[in-house]
Design goal:
Blueprint: E1 12-15, E2 18-21, E3 24-27, H1 29-36, H2 44-56, H3 64-67, H4 69-74, H5 85-98
Antiparallel strand pairs: 1-2, 2-3
Length: 108
């Protein structure tokens, strides 16, 4: 073991971009702020970037596939990129959900 990489007697620590505490696993606030401050995607490249960020946090987003379905429909091959009201509502829903993210904990 490398003593410089070990931490003993701590109550929390960062691991794979998450904050691990005694009561559960949380999302780092910087990752939430990046998605909340993000403007709506203007093209397919920006939409793919959003999808990747949301996929990283999928275990924290209840019904992730259902909430992101409008984005998946836009990414189908041959579909023109048209950001509509359904996509805007889904984007705002995900952003507001991440304002109060859950803490993942082991079942009791």
């Amino acid at each position: 073991m490398n003593p410089l990489k070990c931490a003993f007697g701590v109550t929390s620590g960062k691991f794979l971009g998450f904050v691990v505490r005694r009561h559960g696993i949380e999302i780092k606030q910087a990752k939430i702020d990046a998605i909340v401050a993000m403007p709506k995607p203007r093209n397919l490249h920006e939409l793919k970037s959003l999808q990747k960020k949301l996929a990283y946090l999928r275990c924290f987003i209840q019904n992730h596939a259902g909430k992101c379905q409008p984005f998946s429909l836009l990414m189908k091959k041959g579909t023109p990129y048209v950001w509509n009201a359904v996509c805007s509502a889904a984007f705002q829903d995900v952003q507001s959900y991440l304002m109060n993210p859950p803490v993942l904990a082991t079942p009791i």
